[in-house]
Write a structure and sequence with these properties.
It is built from 14 helices and 13 strands. It is of the alpha/beta class. The protein has a single domain, classed as Metallo-beta-lactamase, Chain A (4-Layer Sandwich).
Length: about 400
Amino acid sequence: MAEEEKKGLSRRDFVKGLIVGGAAGTLGSMGVYSYSPWRKSHFAKAAPKNIDIGECKSLKITNISETSWFDNKNLMGDIKGAGGLLVNQYTYNWPPFAEKKGQLGKGSYEKGIKEIKQWLPNHLDKAWQFQVENAVHPENAGGYACLIDVELLDGSRKKVLLDSGWSFDWTEKCFQREGIDRMLARREIDCLVISHEHFDHFWGFPVTVKYNPEIPMLIPEGFYTEGLQYIKDCGYRGKLTVVKPGLNPLFPGCATYVFAIPIICRVYGEQSLYFNVKDAGMVSVTGCCHQSIIQFAETAQKTIKYKKNFGVYGGLHISPFEDWDPKYDDLVFALKKYNFEKIGCNHCTGIVCAKKFIEAGYPVVRGTARFRSKDTAYLGNGDTIEFKAAG
């Protein structure tokens, strides 16, 4: 039985979910899909309520990179040219899995990794040079990653690296810019949490391994054979935890939540984080939020014991290609219900959406548009946001 069928997901059902947006079109539906009613059938049924995950004192998030790619037109063209949203991402001939003089949509993990495995993880410059010479649009690859620095009630700290980018070259430069390479080498980062298997969040994994091959790592259940093999092929030697769907406490005041959902480019499952900040409230942190910001907020309310919503950070997967659909206006209005006091959005939220939030009067934290981030409407590369009780 195919893996998709084991999870109750058929190709026909996947298509059905993707076209719910209708007028948005195949590529436009990349955002609509995350908010379609069909998606609800994949969320966990009634979960235990009022689970106490404890409290933390504060958290500071450093945006290492929110620029997953640099040109929407190139990315959209590649996806369409490779066969569309349902095609296995490992066949695109995108970096880092390019074959020698490979063609769009005709690659494979096995052939691609064979070209670079000898250089992983310590000679990433050589591995990337091969991509520059052979991959489809290697210059368009960026990546998503952020550092979450949490202060516990006893004054101690926990540091979580969320995701590891895409381009080896871009990700390593971003790590060096923010000192992540040194933190990893000194074993100051407690764990790596991979939100999901998508290229822009996971394929830069060798950069993390280069600096700390033994860092504890958490991935959501649902990774495919290629992704699991890639972890081994990168030279990873640490403790790998495959996190099952639902709420999973990590340390006092913090829990991850795995949403068992189908995602475009043949990816399954997204892992996000919840932080209960003492005297402030719940902070929800996500990579892409394919589960939708509404479901993300509702899941916290139905599952975790806390006083109020405080903040949200990450990509909210609303208008990743600036393809605004009228349905999103209802979403902007609906967000008011959750009374977030701080919104730190970027990445696949879309600049148009961030500006819509600002126009609606929501407390969006602005960025500086540095290091190739495109607009101050949201938190860009190198920007930070803090969540702690007033006073």
